[in-house]
Amino acid sequence: MWNYSEKVQEHFFNPRNAGELEGANGIGDVGSLSCGDALRLMIHVDPDTEVILDARFQTFGCGSAIASSSALTEIIKGKTLDEALQVSNQEIADFLDGLPPEKMHCSVMGREALQAAVANYRGEVWSDDHEEGALVCKCFAVDAVLIEETIRANNLTTVQDVSFYTKAGGGCSACHEGIEDILNKVLAEKGQAFQSNVARVQADAEQALTQIEMPPLSTPQVTEAAVSGLSTLQRIRKIEAVIEAVRPQLQRDKGDIELIDVVGKAVYVRLTGACTGCQLASVTLSGVQQQLIESLGEFIHLLPVTKSPTA
Amino acid sequence: MDTIYLDNNATTQVDPLVVQAMLPYFTEQFGNPSSLHQYGNRVGLALKHARQQIQTLLGAEHDTEIVFTSCGTESDSTAILSALKAQPERREIITTVVEHPAILSLCEYLEKDGYTVHYLTVDGKGRLDLEHYQALLSDQTAIVSVMWANNETGTFFPVLEMAEMASQAGVMFHTDAVQAVGKVPIDLKNSKIDMLSLSGHKLHAPKGIGVLYLRRGTRFRPLLRGGHQERGRRAGTENSASIVALGKAAELALHSMKHENTVVKVLRDRLEQGILAQIQHAFVTGDPDNRLPNTCNIAFEYIEGESILLLLNKHGIAASSGSACTSGSLEPSHVMRAMGLPYTAAHGTVRFSLSRYTTEAEIDRVIEVMPGIIAQLRSLSPYWKNNAPVQEAFDPAYA
User: Fold this and answer.
1) Is A27 on the interface with B (CB under 8 A)?
2) Which of A229, B84, B352, B379 is the most buried (most CB within 10 A)?
3) Reduced DSSP (H G I as helix, E B as strand, rest coil) percent helix, strand, coil of chain A, to 5
4) Does A101 touch chain B (CB under 8 A)?
5) Hey, what domains does chain B have and what are their CATH numbers?
6) Of A307 and A266, more confident
7) What pLDDT, in 10s, does the model give residues B3-42?
8) Is A62 a catalytic residue?
């Protein structure tokens, strides 16, 4: 059985705002029957202020689908439509003290039901090209469709690439066979052969060796900069570039990251917004760390700080 | 709160007599049965006794036809891979769409390696088309693997007849009998079954012990090579305590077989009728006239199985479901889909599986709480209104 938080259980056993809503002026029906989850969200919106006066739901689904629906109605009541549309699926999950990775799609369904209900209220037609694949990476909740699309869009060829782009496979590594299968499929369509990580890492290493100028043995101290071939300024610029590149992703989830300091191999950053206290913060950090290592060509430690370090 | 365990097709409670029998093999009888000294010798004798107990339960002709493995899955894999290795010229497998993942996942994997797998389909009651099966048997078939009883619905397949047909076509026959052993009489010596898998923890022995029955003369290639254990057919030091346990469990199963088919069956029928009499839009899946005496699988329409299980669990009742959510997959049970159940029913299936420990009071308690649980969830369902399914179809986007 799933490890549901107390709050998920509480909202499942005692759902808030369940049942039909008399006088609803916005209705969103979403879900996937094959997957076993379907949700009708009904909202009553004040036409003058666009404030959601009341919200109710009906859900065909598992414990977390019902709890997510309940949480959604609680979150959006009293908000304006524009405010409500800012609610991310991560907020729904956080409201419930987290959901198991396999169940994150329940919170996505809640957000989509809201979009559909608002569109319905505004007389628009809501359509979604949402497609969900089988969950491949259980550590980071990445499904097959996302992996396949990312491989195609970026011409990825190795499991390592897939981990860098999607995080899939960056945790326990049990899903590497599944990722290889997807890579195989996509590469076969292009008439290419899949190359395992091992082969590529070795090739990279050999290439790197030919490029590195070994310092003379007599030199007593070799600075890190000399090994990676970058000046301190170049290093910091590269670090900044990586951090800037990941910020939009985090901001989309209502979080952010800020570079604080670089001391030798330690890169200090501060996570803010929704990243603070997020259960996946360490995952985010390890992803950023991997990108920094790739960019700098040296091993660094990415360390989160809660306050600015006093010099 | 007293708990009610009705998930015996998932696993069973180890019988206290079985625990008693196995305990000495963790302590004073710790020897390696391969050793020549008295420590080993005593354990070796105990293993022989256990082998004979299982031989008796299965009606096997020789005790050497019993090969101990670590689980049902290992037995299944050993059987199929052995048949392929031993007959490299044969590149086809025949099985069914409703097998356990221990068979299906392996077959999918083998397909990638270029083997052809024929999956026999089932009708609405989970029954096979034997004419189709006959037509598929050929000199290309390396092995047929068909389960004796389905783990979800309990439906029996006619394995004795199918083994006979395979034998006439000169094809090896394996059956995954993990759910059937101990619940139905088995007489392998008078059958054409070449290989049979069983799992200890389904019949009140511990987890981590299984058996592959291997008819004398069947061409065989081991999965695990190494030491001479199991006459070289399954290397690895014997799990002696669990083997002794499984032997004892087999002996007890033989004694309780009549009980399973009378008392347990009556309780199962009482549960089923009690539920169906009170709850509309619910039906039994599989073949009600031809199934395991302990299993009933009911589809509750318009609601989802995991929700039902969570509410049952709150009442201390343990069962299982074929919904996608309980397995973390994207599709409901392949068995329910194979029988053509609509999604609105397939996700709402609940399997109750009884055992010789199940009591009448427990069954009556389930009958008592079930209507409330179903009504509560249907009141939340967009497919349900005023004690009936909604007339206008609820048709969500991207369904």
Assistant:
1) no
2) B352
3) 45, 15, 35
4) no
5) 4-9+257-389 (3.90.1150.10), 16-253 (3.40.640.10)
6) A266
7) 999 999 999 999 999 999 999 999 999 999 999 999 999 9
8) no
